[in-house]
Amino acid sequence: MPDPVIPAPGHVFTGDRHGALPLVIASPHSGRDYPPEFLARTRLTLAQLRRAEDPYVDTLLDGAAALGVPRLSARFGRSWLDLNRAPDELDPAMYVEPLDAHADQASDRVVAGLGVVPRIAAQGLDIYPTRLRVDDARARIASVHAPWHATLERLTMAARDVHGYAILLDCHSMPTPPPVAGGAPQIVIGDLHGRSAASALVALIEAHFLGCGLRVARNVPYAGGYTTAHHGRPEHGIHAVQIEIDRALYMDPQRLTRHMGFAAVAGHLQGLVAHLLAAAPSLGLGPRFAEAAE
């Protein structure tokens, strides 16, 4: 039997909806609920499914949200539906029926098993013992994925209409990257190599984290996903930046428990939001930015 349609919203929202501040924060991979029908179907345990989550990123943003910034947090786990994928990033091999052909079906993420409805969880474990029905995937996308991105669209447009620009911070956590000369990055800022946000904004975010004593990289190994590509339109005054945080900074990745570093990372994020609210008006982030850069 297909999973039932999950009533919208499949997310938790806090803050102002009408653009009082020019900033929106999102946590698409911190959801930890799973529909019972899915848990009955999957071959994996709940503990195995949870390895794909970005644990506690939503609560890391509590201090930032306390400043009044709109915050959107996922309700459902990433193993069930990935909100940072395009709605057509579906793996044809996962479904009983044939899919209508779409270029997104051949994306690197789909090939790796990490499409909008993932085939694998963390450590490459297959989630399903049998193929799914296409209607199942479409129901998840229509009831949870579409409302999530429609809400982000409304929030960023409302902020842009009031302030002349909007900033979307798409917040994630990552496994500790492999060691490199000078030390592995602890923060990775993704702007699709300059396509989703103004360089002055990205430089300000980078400088903030460097000032916190953290090692920072841009776009490697994470340049951004569907959220930055879909919502980031700097030429129209909407800037989307992905922020990846080494989860070892704030939690035990094996036990999935927070440790003493949690408060420091939460403080860094709250400080970033406060700094952006104070400094962004002077960065020239309005719709004319792209024209001025040409």
Radius of gyration: 19 Å
In one word, what is the shape?
Answer: globular
- The poorly predicted ranges are 1-5, 289-294
Q: Please count the helical segments.
A: 10
The CATH class:
Alpha Beta
Order of helices and strands: EEHHHHEHHEEHEHEEEHH
Helicity range: 25-40%
First-to-last CA distance: 54 Å
Largest sheet: 7 strands, mixed
Q: Supply the helix-strand structural class.
A: alpha/beta
Could you tell me the mean pLDDT?
94
Q: Identify the strand order in the major beta sheet.
A: 1-3-2-4-7-5-6
- Portion in beta strands: 5-15%
Task: Kindly report the CATH topology.
Answer: Aminopeptidase
Total strands = 9
Number of domains: 1
Find the CATH superfamily: Zn-dependent exopeptidases
Label the CATH architecture.
3-Layer(aba) Sandwich
Quaternary assembly:
single chain
Keywords: Hydrolase
GO molecular function, one term: hydrolase activity
InterPro entries: N-FG_amidohydro
Pfam families: FGase
